[in-house]
Amino acid sequence: MPKRFKTNVLIIGGGLAGSSAAxxxxxxxxxxxxxxxxxxxxxxxxxxxxxPKQLMQKKFEEYFKDSIVQEINNMITIEPDNKRVYxxxxxxxxxxxxxxxxxFNKAIEVGxxxxxKTIFLGFYDKKxxxxxxxxxxxxxxxxxxxxxxxPRSFVMEKAFSKKHELAVCAQKKCxxxxxxxxxxxxxxxxxxxxxxxxxxxxxxxxVGIGIDAYFNDNPKDVLELFIKDMISIGLxxxxxxxxxxxxxxxxxxxxxxxxxxxxxxxxGGFCHPITGGGIPxxxxxxxxxxxxxxxxxxxxxxxxAKEIYGITNEKAYKKRKKYMKDWNNIKYILPYIWVVYxxxxxxx
Length: 348
Ligand SMILES: Cc1cc2nc3c(=O)[nH]c(=O)nc-3n(C[C@H](O)[C@H](O)[C@H](O)COP(=O)(O)OP(=O)(O)OC[C@H]3O[C@@H](n4cnc5c(N)ncnc54)[C@H](O)[C@@H]3O)c2cc1C
Prior knowledge:
Number of helices: 8
Order of helices and strands: EHEEEEHEEEEHEEEEHEEEHHHH
Bound molecules: flavin-adenine dinucleotide
CATH class of the largest domain: Alpha Beta
Shape: globular
């Protein structure tokens, strides 16, 4: 017999967006259950772990406790001919195992409950979700359901009949030749529809690539090319470990609310379609959704979210559509598709 539970708010996904929503709701006395397929929130890390200062609101400072690995000053963009462009990019490299756990633990401290190693399978009806944990099936009745289940959101698929267009990423941790105070973004013809990164964490760096899934290249092969490339330009040593990967939503924000179900974080397409940055957006959108659930006004959540992030993400998505097909002419299109150039901001 399936086990049955009831809650005010059921949150699918206990990552940044889900835990941020759970924290805000539970501390306001709402009965919340977080469901996540992972055994431990934040593990494995599927992220380059850079948080830009200007996008993170002050009120979330407590989430950073013990998670900052080093501060960042600039972004160095390396063009295909190795010319370097410096731009101000203050922020932090964090350890996401700690950062994600901080938010999740805050939610638990104020009363949220969590079902880990549990998968959302779909809806039984408009107010009941079906979950599976090992051999058990659960039916959970909810007033509201939050889809915070990341870029390949199953909640989005089931409730909105839609899937995100995706970038696929691969990453390793490599020893740096010399310590770096800046994050490095690298554009190459062989990293199609995306870029490579070298983001420093003391003597090591997260070294990765993100490519548009449309091009169908193997991300692991592209990463190996990139690592060789970064060794040859003297940024890293050959010593690399800890392979990881992941996905990014590329199509921005569409519909966020369907009756009593709403999406936030990557599930909602809050991640920026060109930079791939989504940490601040996930934390902020989860918190914002929680506040509108408290007011029982999901329509205003969609309105505010689109006002703050929707227009920016839509512009970035349109640029992808317009320019990515000319990727073999990367030198020409780069000023129109990367945020450090004036042309990016002048033209759609
Ligand atoms: C390789 C890579 C590098 C990145 N680097 C950066 C960076 O440097 N800076 C930055 O700002 N952003 C970066 N991002 C983006 C950032 O990681 C995401 O935007 C952010 O993690 C989104 O948070 P989220 O809570 O929405 O989703 P997630 O962090 O993906 O959390 C979703 C949670 O839902 C759970 N889940 C999924 N499906 C189900 C299911 N059916 N049932 C139960 N649980 C489920 C998952 O286990 C997971 O815990 C990067 C992304 C990738 C892939």
